[in-house]
């Protein structure tokens, strides 16, 4: 039996143990955006390092320094660099993933505790981070452990880079990659990242593009303390009123960004590119059903995809400092911070985006004649990425996908952002493949996030099959 078949067999046998490992890591609430959870983020990084070291990998913990989170100075969680195998006759694959997760509270609407993995009868493994990105990060580890257990030689040398700040702007990571490009990462032939999702629920894909993200806080401050609205309403400039007005000026109800100049930087779609939207397995019916209500703006599937992959969008996320609890509090909040972000596309420049957004909001605020103070703060930014899917690294990914799922993968782009992708490509001068494990309805960043047992188990096979394909692929072709 071929090595890869033996590997698949053992993955099938060990399914329940793999689910238990996912349960163990979901239980570590490694929320990078919450200062109180920072020790858990560090604990999660340490868990990964310990497990890889137990397997025999050489690891290096890099502490990226400090972070200023709303005035609180915090240690950034460690970046775990690793090397598993160092055979000069083998190719070297660098894998990246993140062990931090988005915030999750039961009161957001989760059916069960977000940090307790629940296996549902329909095969869903529900828990924060199950698909984004703990399942895939475990996938690489379990792949290597299974090879060892089965006595199968790893087909490539593996390097890894796991960070704990991806969901909060990957602070400090770019500098580490630049610094380590000719050191720890030296000898890397290709990079593979498993941190995005299929286009639908059944057909796997390979991904060759990501949007960038520019995240902003819009702060309005007025009186020195919250006020009684019966006493002061109508007599003072209210920060919340100014903020709501400004937020309403950013984007219209059909998703069109109102900031002048934003669309000027967008690269036009060519006829050749237009063809890449043909024959993808993607349907509005399935999407609307996943969304529970048909709230789609566009009539055609290709327009939805273009607005996900190829055009900039602006989303409003929330307001800090505003009254939000149940009950009827009659307060005038003294200081509020609206949060919004733009997803950016070729050829948008983050600095230009920040300049246009800031100027526009300053102009709109000036029109109000308000005596409040307004400030636009860009909290984090990451660049878009686009790559040709013709590279042999993608051929290896496609062959592995066919071996595991029996179908040729779709070629997709991703609406979300993994800013470090471009940093790897530029500094290591190697091809980067995005090889997703999860499905379109996994609910990353949302309530009841899940990964299907099928995607998790077949995904572990997929990552292993990919490494075997890379070993047999001429990467220079
Ligand atoms: C696609 C990836 N799994 C992801 O979720 N990326 C995040 C990155 C981010 C940027 N700011 C906060 N998080 C995303 O696209 O939102
Ligand atoms: Zn995410
Ligand atoms: Zn992610």
TrEMBL record:
The keyword Secreted does not apply. Its cofactor is Mn(2+). One of its GO terms (molecular function) is metal ion binding. Binds 2 manganese ions per subunit. Residues 209-366 form the Peptidase M20 dimerisation domain. Mn(2+) 2 binds at residues 98, 132, 195. GO terms for biological process: proteolysis. CDD domains: M20_dipept_like_CNDP. The record marks 228 as: Important for catalytic activity. Substrate binds at residues 195, 228, 330, 343, 417, 445. Keywords: Hydrolase, Manganese, Metal-binding, Metalloprotease, Protease. It comes from the Eukaryota. Gene3D superfamilies: 3.30.70.360, Zn peptidases. SUPFAM superfamilies: Zn-dependent exopeptidases. Mn(2+) 1 binds at residues 132, 167, 445. Belongs to the peptidase M20A family. This is CNDP dipeptidase. It comes from Linderina pennispora. The lineage of its organism: Eukaryota, Fungi, Fungi incertae sedis, Zoopagomycota, Kickxellomycotina.
């Amino acid at each position: 039996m071929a090595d890869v078949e033996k590997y698949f067999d053992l993955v099938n046998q060990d399914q329940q143990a793999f689910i238990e490992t996912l349960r163990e890591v979901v239980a570590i609430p490694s929320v990078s955006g919450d200062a109180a959870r920072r020790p858990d983020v560090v604990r999660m990084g340490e868990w990964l390092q310990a497990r890889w070291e137990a397997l025999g990998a050489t690891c290096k913990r890099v502490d990226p320094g400090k972070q200023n989170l709303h005035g609180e100075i915090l240690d950034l969680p460690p970046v775990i660099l690793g090397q598993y195998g160092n055979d000069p006759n083998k190719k070297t694959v660098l894998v990246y993933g993140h062990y931090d997760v988005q915030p999750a509270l039961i009161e957001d609407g989760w059916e069960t505790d977000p940090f307790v993995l629940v296996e549902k009868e329909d095969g869903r493994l529900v828990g924060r981070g199950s698909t984004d990105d703990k399942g895939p990060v475990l996938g690489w580890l379990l792949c290597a452990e299974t090879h060892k257990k089965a006595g199968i030689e790893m087909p490539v040398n593996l390097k890894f880079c796991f960070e704990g700040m991806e969901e909060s702007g990957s602070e400090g990571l770019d500098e580490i990659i630049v610094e380590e490009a000719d050191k720890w990462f030296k000898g890397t032939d290709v990079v593979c990242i498993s941190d995005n999702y299929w286009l639908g629920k059944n057909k796997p894909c390979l991904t060759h593009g990501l949007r960038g993200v520019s995240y902003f806080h819009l702060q309005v401050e007025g009186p020195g303390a919250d006020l009684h609205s019966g006493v002061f309403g109508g007599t003072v400039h209210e920060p919340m009123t100014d903020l709501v007005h400004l937020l309403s000026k950013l984007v219209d109800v059909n998703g069109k960004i109102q900031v002048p100049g934003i669309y000027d930087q967008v690269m036009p779609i060519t006829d050749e590119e237009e063809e890449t939207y043909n024959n993808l397995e993607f349907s509005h019916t399935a999407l609307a059903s996943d969304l529970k209500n048909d709230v789609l703006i566009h009539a055609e599937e290709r327009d939805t995809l273009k607005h996900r992959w190829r055009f900039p969008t602006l989303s409003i996320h929330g307001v800090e400092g505003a009254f939000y609890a149940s009950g009827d509090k009659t307060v005038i909040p003294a200081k509020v911070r609206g949060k919004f972000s733009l997803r950016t596309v070729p050829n948008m420049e983050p600095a230009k985006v920040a300049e246009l957004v800031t100027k526009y909001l300053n102009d709109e605020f000036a029109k109000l004649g308000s005596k409040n103070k307004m400030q636009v703060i860009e909290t984090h930014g990451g660049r878009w990425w686009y790559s040709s899917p013709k590279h042999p690294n993608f051929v290896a990914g496609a062959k592995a996908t066919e071996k595991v799922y029996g179908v040729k993968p779709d070629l997709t782009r991703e609406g979300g952002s993994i800013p470090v992708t471009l940093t790897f490509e530029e500094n290591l001068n190697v091809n980067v493949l995005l090889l997703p494990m999860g499905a379109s309805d996994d609910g990353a960043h949302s309530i009841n996030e899940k990964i299907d047992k099928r995607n998790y188990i077949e995904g572990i096979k997929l990552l292993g099959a990919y490494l075997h394909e890379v070993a047999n692929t001429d990467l220079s072709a």
